[in-house]
Amino acid sequence: VFLGGGAQLLQLQQDLIPRTSHLLSSYHLLKHISQNLSSSVPMDTIDVNLQHLTALELSDTPSVSTGRSVLNPQTVLELFYQTTARRIIISQIFSQQHTDSLLLWNNMISNVVQLLAQLLWPSNPGFQFPECLMANCQYTQLQDYVRLIGPWCQVNIGSCRFVLAQCYLAHGEGQKALRCFQEAATEVEKEEFLMKLTGTEDEEAAASPRLQYYNKVLRLLEDMGLPELIIQLASLALAEADDDVHCQAALWTRIFKHHLDLGHNSEAYEALTQNPDTSMQLDCLRQLVVVLCERSQLQDLVRFPYMNLHNEVVGIIESRARGLDLLTHNYYELLYAFHITRHNYRKAGTVMFEFGMRLGREVRTRLGLQKQVNCYLAALNCLRLIRPEYAWIVQPVSGSTYERPGASPKRTSDGEFSAEPTAGRQQVDILELHDLEKDYFLSRARLTLAQHHPPSTAIAGSVSAPELVLLLAQTGLFDSALSLSRIFELDLSPVFDALTFKCIQLQSGGEEHQSEAWSWLAANQLSVVNTKESSATDEAWRLLASYLDRYPSTNGQHHRHVIHKLLSHGIPLPDWLLQSYKCLDAPSLLRLLLNFDLLEMAAELVLEYVDAVLGRGHQYFGIERPLSATSPPAWLPYTAIDQLLLALSETQTHSSLHHKVQDKLAEYHNVVQQTTDRRLGAQRQVAS
C-alpha cells in the first residue's frame, strides 16, 4: 500500500509476504519446542511402545531411548538433543573436520547450534524430531507439533499423518487413527520416513510399496489388539491388491481370523469364501470348524451353505472326529447334523454307525454303551427315511485299506484327495437295514446287562451274541436273553436251562436266594405278585411257565430240556409242567421218566395215555379225535411201554402196577379189534 502498487507490490504479495510468513512460523515453532516441557513416562509404557515400534521395524532407530533420566523437568528440545540430535551432530562435525586441525569451542558451539536448527527446521526432509517424540511416548507434545505445522508446512505431510495416527491410538481414538493411516498411505513412495515402513522381507518384496505399508500397519494393530481396526484397514488394502492374488489371500485370511475372534461367524464365513488361495481357504475352513465346535456354536457351523467346499468340510470334520476323544468332543454328532440338514440320510446313518462301532471298541463304560445304543437307533431312523432299495451303508471289512466304516474312498483322514484306489481297496461289506437292527438290539442288550450288573460293563461291549445270551441269563435278564436269541436265531435251550437252574436254587435255597430273586424277577416283563402267599420260588416257576407258553418249540423241545434239568437234580416235576408236556409229546415224557427210573410215574402216564386214546381225557394229551371206526389211526409208544413192563416185572414192589398196565393194554387191544372189525364191515358194505 505504501509503495503505491506496481511491480514492487506484486513482488511483495507473491514472494516476500509468503517467505516472511514461513520464516515466522518456523521460528515460532522452534521457540515452542524449546520451551515445551516433556512428559514423564513410566518404563512399562516405554516397553510397550518399543514392542509396537518393533512391529513397524522402527525399534532400531536412534530416537528410541529407554534409559534417560526423568527426575528433572526438561523440554522436548533437550530430550531430542540428548537422545538423537547429539549423536547426529557430533558425527557430522567430525566428518567435516580435518585430521590435523584443532576443534575450537567458539566454532564448534556455533556449528552445533546451526546443525541442531537444521534438524529441527520444519522444511527439513528429515523427520528425526517427530520420530523422537513418537519413540519416547510424547504424544501430547507431538500432537501440538503437528497442529502447529499442519496449516503451512508442505513437507512430510504423510509422515505427520502417520505419527498423528500413533497419537490417536495411544489415546484410544481408533477411528481417527485409521483415517490418518489411510491419508498417510498416499505419500508412502515420496517421503523418507514412510519409505522405511515398506517391507524388506522376501514375501513383501513383490508387493507394491503401499501394500507393504498396509502390512506394517496391520502388524502394529495386531500387536495392539485392535481387531475391528484391522478388519477395516485390511478391507481398504484389498483395493490396492487387485492384481496380487497372494496379497489378496493374506488380507482375506486376516479379515477371516479377526471376524472369527470377534464372534462374527457369518462375516468370517464370507471372508473365507472370498479367499482366492485354496490352501489358505482350507486352513481357514479347518479353523472355523474347530473354533465353532469349541464354542459350541454348532448351529452356525451347520447352516452355512459351503457351496464349493462341501467335501472339504466333511473331510475336516471326519478327520477331527476320528482323531480325538469320543466322549470329550462331539464331532460325530456335528457331522450327523450336517448331513441331516442337507437331507443326506444315508451318510448321516453311516456316521452314526461308525460312531457306535468306535464307542463299542474304545469306551468300555455304561455311558459308552448308552451312547452306542443311541447311535445305532439314529442310524436305523436315517435308513428308514429313504427308499428301501437305497437303505444300506458301506462297512470296511478286515484287510481293507479303510480303517473305519463310512470312510471316504476318495479322501484321506485329513480331507485330502488320496491316490487312485487299488483292487484291494474295494473290499467292503454292505450293511442293510436288518443288519443294523441286529447291531442295535445287540447293543441294547449289552446296555441292559451293564445297568443290572455293573461288573459286566467292561466285557459287555465286546462279547458276541451267544456269549451275551449266556451272561444275560446268568444275571436273570431272561426277557432280554430270549429276545436276543430270537433276533439272532439262536437256540433258546441255554436260557431255559439257566432259568430252570435258578428255580432249582430257589426250591432248595434259603432266604438269601429268595431276597436276591426278587430283583431279577422284577427285571422281566411279568407282573410279580409279591404277597404273603406268593414267594420268589412261586414267581420263578410262573415265569418259566410263561416262557414255555410264549416260545413254543417243535415237539416240546424246551419242555423236554427243562424236565431233564429238573430230573437230573432230583427235583420233583411240577404238575403244570407235566400237564403241559403231556399235551405236547406224551411219548417223549414217558421215555424221560424211564431214563430216570421213575417207574410209578411212567406207569401212571401209560394208564392215562391209553385212556386218552380210548376217549377218556383225550383233550389233556393233545389228541383231537380218540380211537373210533371213523377217526384216523391211533398209536401207542410200544417200545417205551415194553421197557416199562420189563422194568416193572423185575421188581416185586411194582407187581400191581405191572398187572394194571397189562390189563389196560388188553383193554386197548380189545377196543382196537372191535374198531377194526367195524371198519372192515363198513368197507365191505360199501364195496357190495
Q: Nearest-angstrom radius of gyration?
A: 50 Å
Largest sheet: 2 strands, antiparallel
The helix tally amounts to 32
The number of E-state strands comes to 2
Show unreliable segments: 60-71, 397-406, 420-424
Provide the β-strand percentage band: under 5%
Quick structural gist:
It holds the Pfam family TPR_NUP160_120_M. By secondary structure, this protein is mainly alpha-helical.
Q: Topology of this protein?
A:
Blueprint: H1 7-35, H2 43-55, H3 76-96, H4 105-120, H5 128-135, H6 139-149, H7 157-170, H8 174-185, H9 192-195, H10 202-205, H11 209-224, H12 227-238, H13 245-261, H14 265-274, H15 278-294, H16 298-303, H17 310-323, H18 331-341, H19 345-362, H20 366-384, E1 392-396, E2 428-432, H21 433-452, H22 457-460, H23 465-475, H24 478-487, H25 493-508, H26 511-522, H27 536-550, H28 557-568, H29 575-595, H30 599-614, H31 638-649, H32 655-687
Antiparallel strand pairs: 1-2
Helix pairs in contact: 2-11, 3-4, 3-5, 6-7, 7-8, 8-12, 11-12, 12-13, 13-14, 13-15, 14-15, 15-17, 17-18, 18-19, 19-20, 20-21, 21-23, 21-24, 23-24, 23-25, 25-27, 25-28, 26-27, 28-29, 29-30, 29-31, 30-31, 30-32, 31-32
Domain NUP160 middle TPR: 121-385
Organism: Ataeniobius toweri
InterPro entries: Nucleoporin_Nup160 (IPR021717), NUP160_helical (IPR056547), TPR_NUP160_C (IPR056536), TPR_NUP160_M (IPR056535)
